[in-house]
Amino acid sequence: MDKKLLFEYGVSDIQADKFEKYFELLLDWNEKINLTAITEEYDVVTKHFLDSLMCVKSDVLSNGASLIDVGTGAGFPAIPLKIANSGLKVTLLDSLAKRLNFLNEVISELELTDITTVHARAEDGGRDAALREKFDVAVSRAVANLSTLSELCLPFVKVGGYFVSMKGPNAEEEIATAKNAIKILGGKIERVVPYDIPTTDLQHNLVIIKKVAPIPQKYPRSAPKPAKMPL
Known about the structure:
alpha/beta; Rossmann fold; 23% strand; globular
């Protein structure tokens, strides 16, 4: 894998080696289970690795922070963030056991520490006392509207913590629709950080939501209500 792009964005030699191994595992496992439609090296580096690393522009990922990646899929953005900042305490939550088998192999092969996987739907995990309001930061790159994602992610965040939603170019439309839901769920939109994915013409946004109050006990609702009937 050509590591030049990674080096340009502050990745060390050791970290670049981990990204290379991650890339190899992703392609290998993608032949067995559906992890990503993006498989060309340049596209994986830019649209997965560098895009994930842009999450640091949120300025809420302090060293030692506890981070949960809700609906992590193939591990984006949390595994790239963990490679870049080994001090993060990371939890990867996903509903599909096959994906977690892949992620556990990545964790093992990359020799990552302070990172665990949890097999659960977000609707169930958010009601689990071991996970509810336990994290400094929740992140998600999942493809769902912001109202739904807020109900799935804010339950994991401590009061005073943050939910960082990675969104495409039309974030403002989603924010306008989601404002009431976010307020109901104890959140407040603090800011939106636009960013360009390096060496591409793609612009995305980080929607940064602060948890300002405990989430009401009735949330998250059971599946499929958050997706089918957004607040």
